[in-house]
Amino acid sequence: MTTLIPDWLARQAALHPQRPALISAETRYTFAELDRWTGAVAARLSQLVPKGGRVAVLARNRPAYVAVVHAAPRAAITLVLLNTRLTAAELAFQINDSAPDALVAERELLAVAREVIAQKPVIALEDLAAPPGDEELPATLIDLSAPHTIIYTSGTTGRPKGAILTAGNHWWNAIGSLLNLGLRDDDRWLAVLPLFHVGGLSILLRGAIYGMPVVLRERFDPSAVWRDLTEQRITIVSLVAVMLQRLLAVAPEPFPHHLRCVLLGGGPAPQALLEQCAQRGIPVTQTYGMTEAASQAATLSPADALRRLGSAGKPLAPVELRIVTANGQNAAPGEVGEISLRGPTISPGYLGMAPRPPTEWFHTGDLGYLDAEGYLYVVDRRSDLIIAGGENIYPAEVEATLLSHPAVAEAGVVGLPDPEWGQRPVAAVVTQQTVTVAELIDYCRARLAGYKVPKAIIFLPELPRTAAGKLRRHELREWLMSRVGE
Amino acid sequence: MTTLIPDWLARQAALHPQRPALISAETRYTFAELDRWTGAVAARLSQLVPKGGRVAVLARNRPAYVAVVHAAPRAAITLVLLNTRLTAAELAFQINDSAPDALVAERELLAVAREVIAQKPVIALEDLAAPPGDEELPATLIDLSAPHTIIYTSGTTGRPKGAILTAGNHWWNAIGSLLNLGLRDDDRWLAVLPLFHVGGLSILLRGAIYGMPVVLRERFDPSAVWRDLTEQRITIVSLVAVMLQRLLAVAPEPFPHHLRCVLLGGGPAPQALLEQCAQRGIPVTQTYGMTEAASQAATLSPADALRRLGSAGKPLAPVELRIVTANGQNAAPGEVGEISLRGPTISPGYLGMAPRPPTEWFHTGDLGYLDAEGYLYVVDRRSDLIIAGGENIYPAEVEATLLSHPAVAEAGVVGLPDPEWGQRPVAAVVTQQTVTVAELIDYCRARLAGYKVPKAIIFLPELPRTAAGKLRRHELREWLMSRVGE
Predict the structure, then answer these.
(1) Three-class SS of residue A51?
(2) If you average pLDDT over residues B63-71, what whole number do you get?
(3) Where are the domains of chain A?
């Protein structure tokens, strides 16, 4: 029995037509305006893409992106959100895999867009999202079981997988966040995270579901964020650790009183940063989330934010979380195991793979433990996952790229600590032909998003491996750390 | 595909074990304590009632009632909530119709309970809800499609019908209310409405779903409410109009600043009362609700409370509301029609009747219109429904009782305006044998809850009827009004 609910944006437009919905550098839209715009974009989209089809989006944070995000479900179209930092080859893989019926790209990225998709329409975001004209698609009911978004998350195999998020995954996540953080009349959420990541996207959806203004910025700029916090009377902002560090550097005054939550996600935060924020009275709320959980899975409640430094809190109300030991049992308090999740916020699965039944657990691959009071501490993201400035880097993907170079016989990539970005990727390779580090880095740069390109490459006669030939990643990491250092 | 979510009370107990969950005259329970108590009551209930069975509850507002409400779903048992003001005959009808596996009654009502149920266990609430012992039933997942509560609502046929409310109906209603009213750290909801009505019950469920303290009182006492508002730092209170009037009479001082919402339901409110509250700056939020909608269906948002006096606001976010004209079309703005509802808060149907598919509209029988901006104005509750002090009285039920008296040939019951209770029931009868008004009133009193007994009975030679013999209720009402007056 599927659940149908009124289109959330249309409902908030009916409830609060004049309330600001979206504030950007250029302009501001009320809920009524954003809803009308969404209807117009939905009408245009439905000319390009059949019901049940897919539209890929390649754009940075722009107001028009928001209209497309709300318009696609209104036209019964699933969104495929593309990371603008990917190379053409990486994008082409995701396009081939998700087979969208059309690609919407901001004008500056049209050339790339045309390069990566063949025989399907490519539309400029600016044209698609022109002001409302004659035709508007009316809002209909939202089917919570319908696929809403596809976002690629790289896996340990090195091949990115398209995680499917339903409308219900997003709805339940928004409600789970609401039950944790509360909701006030004056709430305004600042969105500086990319909208093609679930961390940014989920802010838009919360805005529409709660009837809450969202202030959208094209990129993170610490001085601009500091100005926004005050001038836009921001009450909640989502940041990753490197952004918060930069913000602190430009923010000498006390933080404004109305800022009630700095939602800090995108990987582990340095303890020193958390302590500095605690000393300055900044209400940092750590969260543990991921694409497959439609953003937050566990979040420290504001009341606990300063008392539980370093914890990612407790699971959101609709989410079950357990720590599974190597033999499949529930871990004891304090015992490290794999973090596993279940509930209506969790993705039903990946494109082209069998869906996970809702009663089955999603095994994150991340390691953590619960303390005696049930607070989650994340010990290590999926053993080999590297997180640099909130972007996930899967070593297997970088290793596969290095291995595709004729000179490289073996490759191992690990994350080393980086004071600014949290981690940086570093590679060790065994060569079979002569090659220089610069050549390999250029080779990677042509094939991988910049943030994935190793910051250092070390030549070794052999890589540490198990008897079965499996890379001893931990050992390699220790060794590289002693060589390359912090 | 059914949706499973963690047991809401257990989850809030895990999140906020030490937060007060339930404050009553005798004691206060933290979320951890209420959760443990619930587990113990669930273990005892599961000894009496099989999984999938039903337990009826006959009790006034007591802390133990709260434990039973949360325990029943934990034991996969559906609650049948009985109105303590009903007569034994009325209760017996509901017991026969709902066929519970056991009846839980507070000690003072045990004699009545034993009278109305045969061959099934009758347990004292006080014994069932004794402090936790050895055994506690652990919390499991809540299946949102599972029946949670059965509450009888009398129909136009004169036979009460058991409205089934699923766990999901309650959950979605709580979330819809949350999206409208917001949620603050310091929220505390005062419950003086009976827990056997959906208006009182829904407060308990919101408390458990939000992790919000509920202050429970056994009955409405205006001076006690006034004291609670201040001393208990109540932020939200649910009242019906007659209660609010009595509260104003004892509340000379300005209302406390932290009181942010007086949720006013249970039928239409007199305009003079709303204006008086507006003048005194009391944040009255009118709501239009009913059992079948799991309480609120439309509610005025706090921001509009003083600007839209007399409106019941806009539908809750998960609810669709339309006004249907006599020919089945959507009414134009300002045009009166039947209020119809759809969405995940709406009951799937009544016991013993075919369930309503979720895509079909629930026709409330109430008349209203939407203004040009979509605000609901309720013109008349189900043409013949009488609401006295928040209690629904169905004329057909009172008429059927009068007609069962051998002296009565015809009977018509209408609601006349009452300055204190909103309405009072008045009857007109055509007799076929000699009988006195006092005799008829005694006869009703023995068979009907006190609030349903006609406050006046007029003897007429005939009742106004249509050619088809249908009572012209409106005409009778006008005539009685001129005779009996206000």
Answers:
(1) coil
(2) 98
(3) 4-380, 386-484
